Amino acid sequence: MTDRPGGQPTATLDDVDRRILAELRADGRLSIRALAERVAISRANAYSRVERLTRDRVITGFRAVVDPAASGLSTSAYVTLTVRQNSWRALRAELETIPEVAHMALLGGEFDAILLVRAADNAALRTVVLERLQAIPGVLGTRTFLIFEDAENP
């Protein structure tokens, strides 16, 4: 193992581990038996490898991928934020309270953060951006980029 930035250990992965991860990314609901068959290893080996990858935090969880439009969130946008320096921790805590924020990331470059916002419609998106995001202390500015088509949900 080597260290990640911040001193966290990084697991050493071999080709079998990478194939396991690829199969689980494609279908996180695979049984150990089906996973073992697809990767051409024994069930015991597949089980122990998945356990190790989970213990080493290479696999951090399993989730359902939901079509936003089918679940009532037909409007999506990337919203970039320009924020006051040294306010990321407080900002992040505030953003976590907004249910329409599906993903957030701290950036280096022209913008300080980017959010994936999923809302019921344009009016709901407007409310999130103009009333929720711009009201957060430390947010100096926003830019909104409407998503017409999502590669994960065409």
Describe this structure in words.
16% of the residues are buried. Strand 1 (2-3) and strand 2 form a beta hairpin. This protein starts with a strand and ends in a 7-residue tail after the last strand. The chain folds into two domains: 2-55, Orthogonal Bundle (Arc Repressor Mutant, subunit A), CATH 1.10.10; 75-147, Alpha-Beta Plaits (2-Layer Sandwich). It has helices at residues 15-26, 32-39, 43-55, 88-95, 122-133; strands at 2-3, 9-10, 75-83, 101-106, 113-119, 139-147. Helix 1 (15-26) crosses helix 2 (32-39) and helix 2 packs across helix 3. Helices cover 34% and strands 23% of the residues. The strands form two sheets. A four-stranded antiparallel beta sheet has the order 4-5-3-6. Strands 1-2 form a two-stranded antiparallel sheet. The protein has 154 residues and is of the alpha+beta class. It is built from five helices and six strands.
